[in-house]
Amino acid sequence: MAIYRKKPAEVERIRASCQLVFAVQQALRAAIAPGVSTLELDGLAEGMIRARGGRPAFKGYHGFPASICASVNEEVVHGFPNRRFLRQGDLLSVDVGVELEGYYGDGAFTCAVGSPSGPARHLLDTTRACLEAGIGQSRPNGHLSDISHAVQTCAEAAGGVAVVRRYGGHGIGRALHEDPHLSNYGPPGRGPRLQPGLVLAIEPILSLGAPEVEVAEDGWTTRTRDGSLAAHFEHTVAITEEGPWVLTLPGDRPR
Ligand code: MG
Questions:
Q1: Distance 171 CA to ligand 1 centre (A)
Q2: Topology, domain 8-246
Q3: pLDDT in tens, 137-191
Q4: Secondary structure string (H, E, C) spanning the chain
């Protein structure tokens, strides 16, 4: 599949979907607390998405059973929401995907339930910083792997964390996952040139231990092999002449 660059009107439609992702994330952040189950969070997200005319993009995607991915502690990505109650100190990664009138938005965050431990805070801060570093390279005339390299470099500079290499970002817009695949590591200056109209989901995934992961028997839930904590932050970002435009945040123009 070739890389499809969006017209400005299409970027606006992707942004509408991404703004719904952001609104759902805000509601989830407010609801996340000890004693709440991830199944309740899933219901909250689905209700909100449908009330605003959208469709949960993950539900039914290759058979995924829920509206959000909810991954706790050593779970890395693609966790199923369930009835287990969140506890003080848990680390919860939530991924939200929305389709609104044919256009897709995708965003993820990780947060601590209550206060994080020191190492967990380092993991959260570093993963967020890696996403910011990747966004900073999302400019015309750069190359795709400049983003990859920025993520890897940021993680290595922080130390004490590993980039989970099995997963990466992706093009997005008229489908949830479009070309190109965006690796979270690698040398700069490789891959296609970044051009206005390219819309990418940038999503560093880091662990506090080793980078190896394994998929559970449910075929989806991914865990760190060594049981260490993992974090995941994701924004949908449009490349524009003026610079990166983070569509899953409220700002109505590029940075
Ligand atoms: Mg994604």
A1: 9
A2: Creatine Amidinohydrolase (3.90.230)
A3: 999 999 999 999 999 999 999 999 999 999 999 999 999 999 999 999 999 999 9
A4: CCCCCCCHHHHHHHHHHHHHHHHHHHHHHHHCCCCCEHHHHHHHHHHHHHHCCCEECCCCHHHCCCCEEEEECCEEECCCCCCCECCCCCEEEEEEEEEECCEEEEEEEEEECCCCCHHHHHHHHHHHHHHHHHHHCCCCCCEHHHHHHHHHHHHHHHCCCEECCCCCEEECCCCCCEEEEECCCCCCCCCCECCCCCEEEECCEEECCCCCEEECCCCCCEEECCCCCEEECEEEEEEECCEEEECCCCCCCCC
Separation of CA 203 and ligand 1 centre (Å): 6
Q: What ranges do the domains of the chain cover?
A: 8-246
Distance 147 CA to ligand 1 centre (A): 15
pTM above 0.85, yes or no: yes
Tell how far the Cα of 236 is from the centroid of ligand 1, in angstroms: 8
pLDDT of residue 1: 63
